[in-house]
Structures are given as C-alpha cells and as structure tokens.
Design a protein that fits this description.
Largest sheet: 6 strands, parallel
Mean pLDDT: 96
Bound molecules: NADP nicotinamide-adenine-dinucleotide phosphate
Helix content: 40-55%
Number of strands: 12
Strand order of the largest sheet: 2-1-3-4-5-10
Number of helices: 10
Shape: globular
Structural class: alpha/beta
Length: 304
C-alpha cells in the first residue's frame, strides 16, 4: 500500500516508517518544509497532488507542560490539523489513522481504561488531543484513532533515556511513584499499527500499549536494572541479578506528585486496556519490562 506518514521524523514516526516499510508498504514522509501542519494553506497546497491508500498522522504538539501556555499552537496541531487531514483523506479516497493519548482521561478510574470510558482531560495537551479525535471522526467516520501512552524509543527524547543519563552522571534520582500508566515501546506499537493498516481495521478508537502497568519510579528502576544487567560482564546468576535490582532500587527515591510540581496536571492513573485491539485477532503486546530490556539493548548494543 501507499502510505503518507506525517511526523515521520518524530520518536514514533521513525520506527513506524521502518515497520511499515518492512511489510512492503511504500511510505512517503514529507518533512515540515513540504507539509507544515501548522498552516492550513500549506496542507491544502500539499494535497493538490497526492495519492495514498492511508494517511497516518504521527505529527503532534507533544510538549505537555508548554501546551498550558501555547494553547493556540497545541490546538492547531493537535485538533485543526487532524481535522484537515481527515477532510483531505476523504476527498482523495484514503483511510486515515491518527495517534492520540492516555492523557484524554482524568485518572479517576482505578481499572484500565477502555475505549468506551468517557474522556475528561485535565490539561490542555489532553484537551487538544481529544478535540482532534472528535473533529477527525466527525469529518471522516471511516477514521482510526490509536490512543497510546508513555512512549519510549530510540529516536527521540523519552523518560527512560533521561533516567539513564542521570543515573550515569551519578546523581541520586527522585521519581514520582504515585502516577501509574502503560509504558510503551515505539517498536512494539509500530508493529501493532502496521497490523491495523495491513488488515484494513474497522473504524473507531483503539487503545494500544505494552502489557502491564507501572509508576514512573518503577519504569526508572526497571530501566536502570536493564542497563546494569546489560553492562555486567559476569554470568548472570540469580544472586547477581538480585544485587543489580537492589542497586537499581536504591538509585531511585520514590516521591509524590506534589514534590515534583509541573505546569500541567497529569492523570494519576491512565493504564489503557487493549482488549479491543486483541479482539481483532492480534496478539497482546509484550510486557513493558520486556520492552524496556529490548529498548536498552537497542541503545547499548553489546560489543561484537
Ligand atoms: N511521546 C509520548 O509519550 C506519547 C504518549 C501518548 C501519545 N503520543 C502521541 O503519539 C504521537 C507521536 O508522538 P511522538 O512522541 O513520536 O512525537 P514527537 O517525537 O514529538 O514528534 C512529533 C512529530 O511531529 C512533527 N511536527 C511537529 N510540528 C509540525 C508541523 N508544524 N508540521 C509538520 N510536522 C510537525 C515533528 O517534526 P519535526 O521533526 O520537524 O519537529 C515530529 O516529526 C503524537 O500524536 C503524540 O500525541 C505520544
């Protein structure tokens, strides 16, 4: 299939492009100079001469805290641009798949959120993403919206990468332990999105994340543990593994959300349920711990 991928330079976009190409799809990735999604005229001009089977929108305004003050920019990229892409998709006869976020939920629930749970974002990033979902679906009822969460990958800034560099600098880490979510590896969700496209998924919203749940601190500890395990040269006995885990635990002090004030409020629980995706016949994504171990080895390949 011919796929037009926006945001192909972003953390998810790079892995997604590779995953789709590995399945034999032809992927066009316009950069910002060719297609500036913050400008309606730029989008309209670009689509004068485009053909595609799918449009996949990974471009977004993703700075959660800055979105509180840069509301216009966030709303344009996260709501107006997906709406405009949806209109062009309909016009050229392409399907559209758009990425959204767990931050559309308020965190009041204590069980994994399903697609039928009512969103209620508590920050402007989540509000802009929810508006984008709704405008896109209204304009193009054939559209697919994939909500994911807590992404990490080799091609962008992400929490596990920040944790590793802070750990390596020898600093004592303090990480929030009372926000729980679904850490997700960009490589794994890229395969899942490629499955949806390859199987012409029914329209609607899908939650796609790695299995399991974690707090930010648990994610930090697991990342450091995977790093220590990878760097350790001796044979990995159970005894050694538990020593490395204890070292990782000791490196990260748990703190509460109020001890780490941020401009934007975040949901304190935003685990996503992936049953709907699995009901299409696809396997559940691997556990997030397994994903963290693969991510760390992608960052730090063993010497040949
Ligand atoms: N990161 C997460 O933890 C997370 C969690 C849940 C959902 N999501 C969603 O997943 C999707 C991908 O996120 P990500 O983390 O991969 O994002 P990212 O790394 O911040 O990448 C954003 C992409 O959007 C492009 N972009 C920004 N402004 C643009 C503009 N005016 N015109 C054209 N392109 C523009 C960027 O291009 P440049 O390279 O030119 O800047 C980049 O390719 C987004 O929809 C995001 O909301 C992310």
């Amino acid at each position: 299939m011919r796929i037009l991928l926006t945001g192909g330079t972003g953390m998810l976009g790079v892995d997604l492009r590779r995953a789709m190409q590995a399945e034999g799809h032809v992927v066009d990735c316009p950069n910002r100079n060719d297609l500036d999604l913050s400008s309606g005229p730029s989008i309209d001009a670009f689509f004068l001469n485009v053909s595609a089977d799918w449009i996949v929108n990974c471009a977004a305004y993703t700075k959660v805290d800055e979105a509180e003050s840069e509301q216009y920019e966030a709303n344009y990229l996260n709501a107006v641009a997906p709406f405009t892409l949806a209109r062009h998709a309909r016009r050229i006869g392409a399907r559209i798949l758009h990425l959204s976020t767990d931050f559309v939920f308020d965190g009041a629930k204590q069980r994994p959120y399903t697609e039928s749970d009512e969103p209620n974002p508590i920050g402007n990033y989540g509000r802009s993403k929810l508006q984008g979902e709704r405008l896109l679906q209204k304009e193009n009822p054939d559209g697919v919206v994939v909500r994911t969460a807590w992404l990490f990958g080799a091609f962008g800034k992400c929490f596990p990468r920040t944790i590793l560099s802070a750990f390596e600098s020898g600093r004592q880490l303090r990480v929030v332990d009372d926000q729980v979510g679904s850490p997700t590896y960009t490589r794994d969700i890229s395969e899942a999105i490629t499955n949806l496209i390859g199987n012409n998924a029914p329209p609607g919203v899908y939650h796609i994340v790695n299995a399991g749940q974690a707090s930010w601190r648990e994610l930090a500890v697991e990342t450091i543990f995977a790093h220590l395990l990878r760097s350790s040269h001796s044979s990995e006995s159970r005894q050694e593994e538990s020593e490395l885990r204890a070292r990782a635990e000791a490196a990260v002090l748990p703190i509460r959300t109020e001890d780490w004030p941020t401009k934007a409020q975040r949901p304190n629980y935003s685990v996503l349920c992936t049953d709907k995706y699995c009901s299409l016949g696809f396997e559940r994504l691997p556990d997030w711990r397994d994903a963290v171990a693969r991510f760390v080895s992608e960052l730090q390949p063993l010497p040949a």
